[in-house]
TrEMBL record:
<dbReference type="InterPro" id="IPR029000">
    <property type="entry name" value="Cyclophilin-like_dom_sf"/>
</dbReference>
<dbReference type="InterPro" id="IPR052708">
    <property type="entry name" value="PxpC"/>
</dbReference>
<dbReference type="InterPro" id="IPR003778">
    <property type="entry name" value="CT_A_B"/>
</dbReference>
<dbReference type="GO" id="GO:0016787">
    <property type="term" value="F:hydrolase activity"/>
</dbReference>
<feature type="domain" description="Carboxyltransferase">
    <location>
        <begin position="25"/>
        <end position="304"/>
    </location>
</feature>
<protein>
    <submittedName>
        <fullName>Biotin-dependent carboxyltransferase family protein</fullName>
    </submittedName>
</protein>
<keyword id="KW-0067">ATP-binding</keyword>
<keyword id="KW-0547">Nucleotide-binding</keyword>
<keyword id="KW-0378">Hydrolase</keyword>
<dbReference type="Pfam" id="PF02626">
    <property type="entry name" value="CT_A_B"/>
</dbReference>
<dbReference type="GO" id="GO:0005524">
    <property type="term" value="F:ATP binding"/>
</dbReference>
Length: 307
């Protein structure tokens, strides 16, 4: 067993995996890594299953000290990572010697970094997952949904692998301003024609009032012309429009049902990109049919197998 001691942390640093499935009928949300692509690459670097537990570090403010020599991997945002003061770039596995400190300072590119260990970090499974959902008090190091805290110990039992890097061609482009793909939903025809034009022809600003439940998009107010809805199940990435007309993208820790009309849902690849955008950034939306979104998703997953 290898161990790391957490030296500093914030409430935004959490243990995550692929999420909790098959329990939403109980009112339990999905959870899991907000940027599943970066989580997958962090695990790929060590030969892990793509869904084993990793550390999701949001905006920095996290540091660990190695209690033994170890090998780890880092993917996702560049949060100014340092090993004993020396810069460490993401998208690679690396060695951390006993007594060395790995520190994440502040965002340089992107918002969320993912730290992986051989075999995944040790944590109990609650309802089939170790994903931390603070609101529901589920998952994490002790199964009680607590954020990672100073003085806690991270451990893993996997074998170290060879050092690897994700090629530049395989890395998600965190600088990309490509529109976010939106699969149109059942209520799309209930919005005014002007609103439908504005949705896909205007820039939307990410509100600072954002968390793992959802991100509000600020822009031209959208007008829903349909009848009031009965609450129904909400998928990951759903873009709902409350009475003020400002859309909200629902993320991993969303509620399980809702009664606001929805434009549709962002694709998984679009959600991974959105998870790396900082408050104040601008995004655009692009309509896409489900068949195209599914094909692109499968093609992306093939990258892990072919790399």
């Amino acid at each position: 067993m290898s161990r790391l001691t957490i030296e500093t942390s914030t409430p935004l640093c959490l243990l995550q995996d692929a999420g909790r499935f098959g329990v939403r009928h109980l009112g339990v949300t999905q959870g899991g890594a907000a940027d599943w692509c970066s989580m997958g690459w962090a695990n790929w670097l060590l030969g892990n299953g793509l869904d084993v537990p990793v550390i999701e570090i949001t905006l920095g403010g996290f540091a660990v000290v190695a209690e033994e020599d170890c090998m780890l991997a880092l993917a996702g945002a560049d949060l100014g990572a340092l090993i004993d003061g020396q810069a460490l770039a993401p998208w690679r596995s690396f060695k951390l010697s006993k007594g060395q400190t790995l520190q994440f300072t502040q965002p340089l590119l992107g918002a969320r970094a993912y730290l992986a260990a051989p075999g995944g970090f040790d944590a109990p499974k609650v309802l089939g997952s170790s994903a931390t959902v603070v609101r529901e008090e589920l998952g994490g190091l002790d199964g009680m949904g607590l954020p990672l805290a100073k003085g806690s110990t991270l451990s893993y039992h996997g074998e170290a692998a060879q050092l690897r890097e994700v090629t530049h061609q395989q890395q998600p482009d965190l600088r990309s301003n490509e529109p976010l793909d939106l699969v149109l939903g059942a209520q799309i025809g209930q919005f005014s024609g002007q609103s439908l034009f504005d949705v896909f022809n205007s820039a939307w600003t990410l509100d600072s009032r954002a968390d793992r439940m959802g991100i509000r998009l600020l822009g031209k107010a959208l007008q829903h012309q349909g009848l009031p809805m009965i609450s129904e199940g909400i998928p990951l990435g759903a873009v709902q429009v409350p009475p003020d007309g400002q859309p909200i993208v629902l993320l991993n820790d969303r509620q399980t049902i809702g009664g606001y009309p929805r434009l549709g849902a962002l694709t998984p690849l679009a959600l991974a990109r959105l998870a790396q955008r900082l408050p104040g950034a601008q995004v655009r939306l692009r309509p896409v049919v489900q068949e195209v979104a599914h094909r692109e998703h499968v093609e992306y997953l093939q990258r892990f197998l072919n790399s």
